[in-house]
C-alpha cells in the first residue's frame, strides 16, 4: 500500500474534530478571515488561485451559509479583509490585495454582507487580524467588538488555514487566556469553512525564492496547530435551542 505524505502526517499528528452546537442563549460571533478575491477568485492577483480549487470553493460556500444564519439571527459578524498599501510589501509574498483594488474586496458570494447592520468590516495590513485591529490610540477594534457584543463563543472561518486564520486564532486565545477578551470562552475553527492555497513541490522546485505549500497537508497542519493552542476544531456546526435551566 502506498501512503501519501499527507496520510503519514495525519497518522503522526492526528487531532479530534467535534460536532459543535451553538446554543441560542450563548452569545456567539462569527469571524470571516480574508475571504476576498485576491486569495479566492481565479486570476485575481498574484496570490489568487490559477484554476478552480475544490477546497477554496467549499470554504466560500460554507462561510456564506454561516453568514446567512448569523444575519438572520442578527448575531455579530466581523470580516477581516487583507488590504495593503502600495509599496509596502509583506515578505516573502509578492504584492497582493492592494487597497482600492478588487483584490482586497469580499468575494461575490459575500459582498451582500457590506449592507448588513450586524457586520463589522476591518481592513488589515498584516497576517493577524488581532494585531491588524490595533488603532493608533492603543485601542483594538476586535477587542471592543467582543466586549460590546458580550461574545462568549467565537466561530472562525476563512483563508489561509495555516497563516492568517492560525495567526488570528493564536493571538485571540492568548488574549483570552490573559483576560483581555472577557467574556470570551470558546474559540471554534470550522474545518470545512477554512482553506489554504496549493503550491506543490513540483512547481516550487522550479520557482525562484519560493517554498512548497501542499494544500491538504498545510490545511491539516494549520488545524492541528490551532487545536494545540486551545481552539476547538469542528467538523460540523449547528444551532440549538436555548439550554434548559
Automatic annotation (TrEMBL):
Source organism, top-level taxon: Eukaryota
Protein name, UniProt field: Uncharacterized protein
Native source organism of the sequence: Vaccinium darrowii
Amino acid at each position: 500500500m502506498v501512503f501519501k505524505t499527507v496520510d503519514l502526517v495525519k497518522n503522526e499528528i492526528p487531532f479530534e474534530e467535534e460536532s459543535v452546537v451553538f446554543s441560542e442563549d450563548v452569545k456567539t460571533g462569527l469571524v470571516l478571515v480574508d475571504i476576498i478575491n485576491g486569495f479566492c477568485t481565479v486570476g485575481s492577483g498574484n496570490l489568487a488561485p490559477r484554476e478552480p480549487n475544490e477546497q477554496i470553493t467549499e470554504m466560500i460556500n460554507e462561510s456564506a451559509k454561516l453568514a446567512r444564519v448569523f444575519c438572520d439571527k442578527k448575531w455579530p459578524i466581523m470580516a477581516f479583509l487583507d488590504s495593503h498599501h502600495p509599496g509596502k510589501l509583506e515578505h516573502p509574498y509578492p504584492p497582493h490585495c492592494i487597497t482600492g483594488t478588487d483584490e482586497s474586496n469580499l468575494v461575490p458570494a459575500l459582498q451582500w454582507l457590506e449592507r448588513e447592520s450586524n457586520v463589522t468590516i476591518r481592513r488589515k495590513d498584516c497576517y493577524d487580524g488581532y494585531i491588524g485591529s490595533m488603532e493608533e490610540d492603543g485601542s483594538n477594534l476586535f477587542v471592543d467588538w467582543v466586549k460590546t457584543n458580550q461574545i462568549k463563543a467565537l466561530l472562525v472561518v476563512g483563508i489561509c488555514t495555516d497563516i492568517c486564520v492560525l495567526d488570528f486564532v493564536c493571538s485571540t486565545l492568548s488574549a483570552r487566556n490573559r483576560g483581555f477578551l472577557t467574556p470570551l470562552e470558546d474559540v471554534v475553527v470550522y474545518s470545512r469553512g477554512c482553506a489554504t492555497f496549493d503550491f506543490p513541490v513540483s512547481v516550487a522546485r522550479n520557482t525562484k525564492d519560493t517554498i512548497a505549500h501542499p494544500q491538504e497537508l498545510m490545511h491539516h497542519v494549520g488545524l492541528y496547530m490551532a487545536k494545540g493552542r486551545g481552539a476547538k476544531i469542528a467538523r460540523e456546526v449547528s444551532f440549538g435551542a436555548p439550554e434548559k435551566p
